[in-house]
Amino acid sequence: MAHHETHGSTKSYTIGFLLSIVLTIIPLVLVLNHMLSRVPLIVAIIAMAILQFLVQLFFFMHIREGEKPRYNVMALILGAVITFTIVAGSVWVMSFNEQVH
Amino acid sequence: MAQAHAAAHHDHPHDHHDQESLKIMGFWIFLVTDCILFASLFATYVVLRTHTAGGPAGHELFEVPGFVAETFILLTSSYTSGLATLAMHKGNTKALIGWLIVTALLGAAFIGLEISEFANMVHEGATIATSAFLSAFYTLVGTHGLHVSLGLVWMTAIMIQLARRGITPVTHRKVFTVTLYWHFLDVVWIFLFTVVYLMGVM
Amino acid sequence: MEMFEEIKSFASTFFVTGDPLIYGADVAIVMTMLAIVFVLTYYKKWGWLWREWLTTVDHKKIGIMYLIASLLMLFRGGVDALLMRLQLAMPDVHFLHSEHYNAIFTTHGTIMILFMAMPMMFALFNIVVPLQIGARDVAYPFLNALSFWLFFFGAMLFNLSFVIGGSPDSGWLAYPPLSELSSSPGVGQNFYIWGIQISGIGSLATGINFLVTILKMRAPGMKLMQMPLFSWSVLSSCVMIIFAFPILTVTLALLFIDRFTGAHFFTLDGGGNPMMYVNLIWMWGHPEVYIVVIPAFGIYSEIVSTFSKKTIFGYKSMVFSMMIISVLSFFTWVHHFFTMGAGADVNTFFAISTMAIGIPTGVKVFNWLFTMFRGRIQMKQPMLWTLAFIPCFVVGGATGVMLAVAPADYQYHNSYFLIAHFHQVLIGGVVFGYLAGIYYWWPKMFGFKLDERLGKWGFWFWNIGFYVCFMPQYALGFMGMTRRVYTYGWDMGWAPLNFVSTVGAFLMGIGFIFQVWQIAYSIKHGERDLTGDPWNGRTLEWSIPSPAPLYNFAVLPQVNSMDAWWEKKQQMQQGEVKQEPVKLEPIHMPKNSAIPFVMSFFWFIAGFGFTFLWVWMAVAGLIGVGICLLVRSFQYDTDYYISVDEIRRTEKALGRAV
């Protein structure tokens, strides 16, 4: 198991950094210039956020590395499911009697 | 299989390595629990974000240059903490400490900006007690800020240990976990940036 | 003079005054503490206490400390219950004031779940899991000690409210707006928040600790699908702890922020929404009840198999059903507040997901029954409790499915029907399970068995008492009696059933006294276990001496199958095991540390400061916590090796050939 991590390289970190910058600027431009109507805009910027999350997971946090079985990946996936449940579930459950804003 | 090498590893020299990898795994799981913590705060924020109770809403409060600057500073610090890990793998203690210092300074700049943002908002009369929206805002963003601040203290402690002991299996693991933590905080910020700030100024 | 008046007025709010019951408790507490101090000083045991217990990182000792604390909490929660039942025994009783009654049902619920069930569960985690999977300790022994002390000081903080400042009185889950500053201005609610918050950090850490222990520290060769079912149940429970406890932390933190800063998360004004609290707390609360019941399922599985002399029936289906339950538990939370009226779509979804949990649970019940089928069943104490559990839990589960029917729940909600239901699953499922586990593993902890005869008396008092107490409550629920009423009139017609219920509660109390007597009696006269395997067990914990030596296993066992120890015994009988010369190696062990104790004490100081809103004290406590963390970070000399000579000496003294 000696040194299971391959740790990436300056190159991979820099690619991840540049991709993150791009994925930050796109939603910013979309929002500040009102380039989409409300619902597609929200979907687009959340998609960008998730993409950037994945970029950082792969380029910065090296999720592909580490010893097998990858319990950390399993924990992360289940964590993502529960995170989604908590946020989306709360919105759904608490939308009773909400006024439309 | 994991247990196969656990079996092969109960002699001394490997004990350390095994223990360190065990701690890294535990830290991953801790990060998942922290993710759930933020999920609960996000859920609260999303449910209460329209509950301004006659007080100011996000688009009246958030300053675009401010939060954009915070975003890029934190993103850059995440990158520099990655460069620190790279320096560590090359065995370059000086470069490692150097990049950690850059990371910590960027982190401190981020915290400085956030504090001045909060101070400005409070000055305009938008406090935590103004409305449910603002309670949720300050708590969510503040919890992230608190995480960053604690990360700064932790990182400083590790830098001192690095200066004293150099790169050992133990300090190696400590640098690895603190940078993992740092990347995680940047990931959380991506969602804060999107859900709180961008959706706030929409 | 003025100063004296000031001190007097401070003391009269600081200390709880005016109630003879509480004065009595004050005296009892002071006397007990004096007695403890006296005994420790007289027998010169302070050093021993500090070295052997307060600073230990040994999972076996930590487990025993959890057990002692949880039994004390069971006593306090039980006294609360009996006081409530006395108050309700007859109509128009004025034994307790309404405020006092509110405080008692609040502390009863909180203590029983968070400070009794949780630590009793952690006791068994600690005592059993490393031994059962063939490990020498948990993954993070230091963190394990920290978890215990956080629980301990959290529990102390919570219990302190009884004599200082006043008890919380807004229900065991402290729903706002009642728990907000506007309705609960006293410090009791802050005690509640910080007591749970501090012990909750410990629970979360335990969840991480045991998950990693089970995944990474199993004996060589032990595949996950060969692991004993109790360890599987702990794994399943830890998965839920990890995902559920952060939600509790946030929920309580938000409530405190409301109370401390005037924020508006759950207030009625300022745009707050009290139902958001209810939504959040049940996202933790529902998994929480599965967190405590799943390990009980694991215990039953071990016991059924051991005392039927058979491999468990349907091992794989047992594992899958536990894992399915642990994931499903995160998708049922709304059934606790169907009456909020979230809408037909929401209520339908959560009604169906709740009923779905009945399926894997049913699978488990059938597996236990099939394991016993044609087995050679031995009616020992652990098995008795297991047999009592099955019908009790089946009825509790069935009434749970009734409650899951959302439209019908509008009738049952907050009635005594609900009270009867959850006591039936929590006592019949959780308490019976942990008691069974304690009887089962007691010889492993202490090296002697608990007396059968006294135990059987306790068992029958508990069981008969249980049904006498709770069956009438289902009927009372249908008759319209709602929970948390502190008294009722003659005209309601509830008097006879309530009286019967109170009798049942006291029968259970007598059962508990029998158990205390049983423990005291067995310490002197209990059957000593010199074999380490008193029940002819099947799993690895029975392969080592009782109590286990510090390092558990002199040589880590090689595992090739399920029921590893049973297999080995079979092979030894058939003479298939060659006596290989054992090669001992020095064993790597963690050093004791005072930091967990000291750091948790600082948390206690911080919690106390936050409770009374004395910011200076809270800050001082938190600084202490921070210093402890830094000191630990700079500590590098944290472990040592036990030499081969010492292992050989220890094993010889325990009568083991090495």
Note the main sheet of chain C: 2 strands, antiparallel
Major β-sheet annotation of chain A: none
Secondary-structure-based class of chain C equals mainly alpha
Helicity level of chain A = 55-70%
Number of strands of chain A: 0
Mean pLDDT of chain C: 93
Q: What oligomerization state is this entry in?
A: heterotrimer
Radius of gyration of chain A: 18 Å
- Report the count of strand segments of chain C: 2
Distance between the termini of chain C: 76 Å
Mean pLDDT over the full residue set of chain A: 86
Can you walk me through this structure?
The complex is a heterotrimer of chains A (101), B (202) and C (658). With 101 residues, chain A is mostly helical. Helices cover 67% and strands 0% of the residues of chain A. Chain A is built from 3 helices and no strands. In chain A, α1 (10-32) packs antiparallel against α2 (38-59). Chain A is flat and about 50 Å long. Chain B is elongated. Helices cover 85% and strands 0% of the residues of chain B. Chain B has helices at 2-8, 12-48, 58-61, 64-89, 93-123, 132-165, 169-201. With 202 residues, chain B is mainly alpha-helical. Chain B starts with a helix and ends with a helix. Mean pLDDT of chain B is 91; it is low at 1-13. By secondary structure, chain C is mainly alpha-helical. Chain C has 20 helices and 2 strands. In chain C, α14 (416-446) packs antiparallel against α15. The longest helix of chain C has 35 residues, at 98-132. Chain C is globular and about 75 Å long. The interface between B and C is large, with 49 and 52 residues.
